[in-house]
Design goal:
Length: 290
């Protein structure tokens, strides 16, 4: 049984560290053994696996990973927690602990510090405030994880897994690289301290190639962001202003013609447009010199 999955132990550890969990750093510690078991099961860990954990905190999930994976790379921002983890798991030679900001270290460099190479898995209870940034940091990297199993806010998980009519920039940013699935809803009471909202276990399986074929991913997302800048407007009206805000001048007439050529009704709104349609629109605009 996981000795770290204990409310009294968690509270005592926080008191000893003189640490008051802060929402800004996403310090909500998991207490629910069933949720922990589901995360570990979904990660499908083997003794040969390399795992990256972001924000290990007091080591509840870390303990499970160390018992199943070949190498575990933990990145902890809070120095007090990092020092405690180093002491708690000092006998675990397959733990590689890095104290610092994960967003400032390329995933390939994290692997290099453990003398590891892809493939690897990302398994973590990630700080809510950096969810979108962290997902893009890993998914867009030269060394992305093959599988990610993450605890995220419920509403964020819903946005990531959305379909036509509910698309967002975040949904496209994730779905371009991975197939997302919500595994389970996790009530706020599963954490200490309890966050203001429920969470979800989110599984991301990396696609063997991008969901759509594009020559310039950055250009694709500039276009998507332009469409969502005035999301409540019809695309024929929203895109000219959105593109202008990003430094691209194009007339409404040109935009409407491009939308029609791409098979997109100019009266539609951004949240209804699929990745394939955005890619087609980008191709049409590029051909016309925009």
């Amino acid at each position: 049984m996981n000795p770290y999955l204990n409310p009294q132990r968690i509270r005592a550890a926080l008191r000893a560290l003189n640490l008051r969990p802060t929402r800004g750093m996403g310090q909500n510690f998991l207490l629910d053994g069933q949720v922990l078991a589901t995360i570990v099961d979904e990660a499908k860990l083997h003794a040969s696996d390399i795992v990256v954990e972001v924000g290990p905190g007091l080591g509840v999930l870390t303990w499970e990973l160390l018992h199943r994976a070949g190498r575990v790379i933990c990145v902890e921002l809070d120095r007090r927690l990092a020092d405690r983890l180093a002491a708690e798991f000092r006998d675990q030679s397959h733990l590689y602990l890095i104290q610092g900001d994960v967003l400032k270290v390329a995933p390939s460099d994290l692997l290099a510090q453990a003398a590891a190479t892809p493939p690897y898995k990302l398994v973590a209870n990630i700080p809510y405030a950096i969810t979108a940034l962290l997902l893009r940091h890993f998914l867009e990297a030269t060394a992305p994880p093959d599988l990610s199993v993450l605890l995220v806010q419920w509403e964020v998980a819903e946005r990531i897994c959305a379909g036509p009519g509910d698309y967002s920039v975040l949904a496209h940013a994730v779905q371009l690289y991975a197939e997302p699935t919500i595994v389970a809803r996790v009530p706020a009471a599963s954490f200490f301290p309890a966050p203001a909202v429920d969470s979800a276990i989110l599984r991301l399986v990396r696609r063997p190639q991008l969901a759509v074929a594009v020559d310039d991913v950055n250009a694709l997302f500039r276009l998507i962001k332009a469409g969502f800048l005035h999301a409540r407007k019809q695309l024929g009206n929203a895109l000219p202003g959105g593109l202008a805000a990003l430094g691209v001048t194009v007339s409404r007439e040109h935009v409407v013609q491009a939308l029609q050529a791409a098979g997109i009704d100019p009266q539609r709104r951004a949240e209804t447009v699929t990745l394939a349609e955005w890619a087609k629109l980008l191709a049409v605009l590029s051909e016309s010199g925009v």
